[in-house]
Amino acid sequence: MERVGSLKLLGKLLGWVLILWALVGIVGCGGFHSTQKTEPAKAEEGRLSSFQFEDLPVPFNMTIIRSDSFVYEAGSVKTGIVVYEGEGDISQLSRFFKEKMPQNDWKLLGHFELQNAMLVFMKERRMAIISIMPQEGPKKRIEIRVGPVEVRPVPTN
Fold first, then answer.
1. CATH 3.30.360 is the classification of domain 2-148
2. Smallest Cα–Cα separation from 31: which of 3, 68, 2?
3. CB 20 within 8 Å of CB 80
4. Do residues 78 and 49 make contact, with C-beta atoms less than 8 angstroms apart?
5. How far apart are CA 131 and CA 111, in angstroms?
6. Which of 81, 131, 87 is nearest to 111 (CA)?
7. Span 58-97, pLDDT tens digits
């Protein structure tokens, strides 16, 4: 019976992951592009942040694509999408995140790989969805979406 409850919770959590992924993707692709030349906003309104999440490792051979990246910070909440491109093998890049993310207390919730790779991690009240996609030639594109998540227990009947 406990296993059924765990499966329901995992199913609901993965549903929220997909919703979060879609929302961050819409914001990331909806014309909200930030640059370093923006006017500083008031602290209570939030602000456009640096494009880095300090606790998210990135392979050294990846270059940030600022025009496709957007990070917003308001109080203790920091959310957004950070896009990188560079050379590498999808399975090696996926393995990099599987090894390095737990060193920063991220827990792997799920992953799948075929021609692309998607990894889902959770830490405290945040979720990171990492997509690795092939580009022309040996290049790969990594999209890291990070956002807050609220986990509530599934009601039992």
1. no
2. 68
3. no
4. yes
5. 10
6. 131
7. 998 899 999 999 988 888 888 999 999 999 999 999 999 9
